[in-house]
Amino acid sequence: xxxxxxxxxxxxxxxxxxxxxxxxxxxxxxxxxxxxxxxxxxxxxxxxxxxxxxxxxxxxxxxxxxxxxxxxxxxxxxxxxxxxxxxxxxxxxxxxxxxxxxxxxxxxxxxxxxx
Length: 115
Description:
Largest sheet: 2 strands, antiparallel
Structural class: alpha+beta
């Protein structure tokens, strides 16, 4: 498992996300929206926590977010900033998990509504 550094507001949020997290073999009209991806992620978190009656493993959370298209892997050869959390987990080069462009846009829309 690869750990994601930085957190939602950390240094990774704007570092070259892919234009889409949609696999090439899935037509755009059949790929879930960011809203649906986050809803599925929330359902996974609730179901897993209720099923296991315990805390959820961070690696499991990241794996599910990646599977749903909310995170993507980026090969990095050096820290992205002074606060790069990847340095703590492994030496470079390594893979870093970052929010996809769609996930970032959706988060910004939700945060804007809350202000």
